[in-house]
Design goal:
mainly alpha
């Protein structure tokens, strides 16, 4: 900025002071722009007014702007209109355009699209491209004039031919949707590219969408990335979101969760609830950042407060489990119910859960079923599976295996793993359907292919027993192993049995013991019994009656009758402990009550001989 008054300024000042309107306008411009003198809006206003009062169009227009922006004078839309009107009456197209904007926005006057149309038309007829665009918008929306897409296209086209990027974007959009012109994605791309090359971020974003979806061109994620990036760098929220998604999914660019978060965070600052929700998911799952339920809660809450239904559900779930926030079932119910009331199937299913278990609300199986059914009708497979469970177990409704089968099948056909397992069980046990091992195997296999350990275990069992398939211990071993590696304790036990007996695999006591122990450490009483037996006989591990008793006791406390019987034997014979008929009698009795024949026999002998019985 020039702070020293220039010769040009001084000569202009002299002419202005003599009453020259053009000089007064020029001096106002110099004060406004700070050229030849210090910037001074008050002085600029003064000289514009002097010129305007003499009918200088440019000065009238500039005064309109100053009153509109509140520069050098208090903002006043009414005065702004007054000066724009003076200039417009002298056919100044910029003033006519601005009058159209003010009538369209209702600034300084009541909103009046008919007046807006009038002034846009006057300016457009003089080739004012901004007016042509706004006139096109009025025709497109039917504001102040009868809706006419052809006229709208004509106006946009006129401005586009002058190189106006906004008009080029609008023409591209008319071609995209086939409004006022024959639909053509190819022509749409042509105009979007013209606008994009001039930096129009909406055009850049839309080109990104077209390349991403393959509309009017071959699908090309790299090109989509290019255009989204151009638009995102200009602050286009939608582009920032889509760019984040490309990084998230690794399309058109190497997958990078950290970069995805970067762009989502740019967009989230502008309050987009979908991005807030997605960021919540990423913090919840630890994608591109350390898992942080507190941050997840923060973003879900921001989105939920804007009415984002998915965020309301996830916020409710955080309250339900106490992740990132103090556990509060009442709050969980509040957010989940809000989503359910909007007809959201996931919300309805979760609300069914809260009623089913009585969390945050009084337990009510009838209401639970109601919400599960609402969700199920929308195709929610979790709700369909849960209804199947309710009908199978007869909770809150009469037990009905046929209905259970119906809902399991609906869910299974959508790939719901739990439903596939449950349907396999119905066929296996012949509930609601005639027993059919082949069908049972089919559904277990569907779930097993998705990595479900229960289904893998069941397939192993069917191969081992030759149910639905020819007996095949090798295949049984394969499926038990898949399930065991996921920590399935039943599979670990059965895999141990295969190794212990050498079925489908080379006999190996050490491996057998390892699998029994893995299941035992999860608290499985059968596995604890087997681990005790391996210690008893010294199979796969150093023989130890003491360790044997330790594992038998763990199993016996959970009601395992074989472990109770074995403890009876050890106390009776004094193995790993002092001989104690009272303890032997106690454990035999526990096992005998459960129908263990060996325990019943030994209990009778002790009673006949008076061993372990107080006299």
């Amino acid at each position: 900025m020039d702070t020293k008054k220039s010769d040009k300024f001084l000569s202009t000042l002299e002419a202005a002071q003599k009453g020259d309107a053009d000089a007064q306008f020029a001096l106002g411009l110099m004060y406004e722009d700070g050229k030849g003198t210090e910037q001074n809006y008050v002085a600029a206003y003064k000289y514009y007014k002097l010129a305007a009062d003499q009918g200088n169009i440019n000065a009238q227009y500039k005064l309109g702007i100053m009153y509109y922006d509140g520069k050098g004078i208090e903002q006043n839309y009414i005065k702004s209109i007054e000066y724009f009107q003076l200039a417009a009456n002298q056919n100044d197209s910029d003033a006519q355009f601005n009058l159209g904007v003010m009538y369209g926005d209702g600034k300084g006057t009541e909103r009046n699209y008919a007046e807006a149309y009038k002034y846009f038309k006057l300016a457009a007829e003089q080739g004012n491209s901004d007016a042509q665009i706004n006139l096109g918008i009025l025709y497109e929306n039917g504001d102040g004039v009868e809706q006419n897409y052809a006229k709208a296209f004509e106006c946009y086209q006129a401005a586009a031919e002058e190189g106006n990027p906004i008009a080029q974007y609008y023409v591209g959009s008319m071609y995209y949707f086939g409004k006022g012109v024959e639909q053509s994605f190819i022509k749409s791309i042509e105009y979007y590219k013209s606008a994009a090359e001039q930096g129009n971020s909406d055009a850049q974003f839309t080109l990104g969408i077209m390349y991403e979806k393959g509309k009017g061109t071959e699908q090309n994620y790299a090109e989509a990335y290019k255009y989204f990036k151009l638009a995102a760098e200009q602050g286009n929220i939608r582009a920032q979101i889509n760019l984040g998604t490309l990084y998230y999914e690794g399309k058109g660019v190497e997958q990078n969760y950290a970069k995805a978060i970067k762009y989502y965070l740019l967009a989230v600052q502008q309050g987009d609830s979908d991005v807030q929700f997605h960021l919540g998911n990423m913090y919840r799952d630890g994608e591109g950042t350390a898992q942080d339920y507190t941050e997840a809660y923060k973003y879900y809450r921001l989105a939920a407060e804007q009415g984002n239904i998915d965020a309301q559900i996830n916020l409710g779930i955080l309250y339900k489990y106490g992740f990132g926030v103090e556990q509060d079932y009442a709050k969980a119910f509040e957010y989940i119910a809000a989503a359910a009331e909007h007809g959201n199937a996931t919300g309805q299913c979760n609300l069914g859960d809260l009623y089913y278990f009585g969390k945050g609300v009084e337990q009510n199986y009838i209401k639970s079923i109601k919400y599960y059914k609402l969700a199920a009708q929308q195709g929610n497979s979790d709700a369909q599976n849960k209804l199947g469970v309710i009908y199978e177990c007869g909770r809150g409704i009469e037990q009905n295996f046929a209905e259970a089968y119906k809902y399991y099948k609906f869910a299974a056909e959508q790939g719901n793993i739990d439903a596939q397992v449950n349907l396999g069980d119905l066929y296996y046990f012949g509930k609601g359907r005639e027993q059919n091992y082949a069908k049972s195997f089919e559904y277990f296999q569907l779930a097993a292919q998705q990595g479900n350990s229960d289904a893998q275990f069941s397939l192993g069992l069917m191969y081992a027993k030759g149910e639905g398939k020819e007996q095949n211990y090798t295949e049984a071993c394969k499926y038990y192993k898949l399930a065991a590696e996921q920590g399935n304790s039943d599979a670990q036990i059965n895999l141990g049995i295969l190794y212990e007996n050498g079925n489908g695999v080379e006999k190996n006591y050490k491996k057998a013991f390892r699998y029994y122990l893995a299941a035992a450490e999860q608290g499985n009483p059968i596995a604890q019994y087997y681990a005790g037996s391996m210690y008893y006989y010294g199979r796969g591990v150093e023989q130890s009656y003491i360790k044997s008793i330790e594992y038998y006791k763990l199993a016996a406390e959970q009601g395992d009758s074989d472990a109770q019987f074995s403890l009876g034997l050890m106390y009776e014979d004094g193995e790993g402990t002092e001989q104690n008929y009272t303890e032997a009698y106690k454990y035999y009795k526990l096992a005998a009550v459960q129908g263990h024949s060996g325990a019943q026999h030994n209990l009778e002998l002790m009673q006949e001989n008076g061993f372990g019985i107080k006299k």
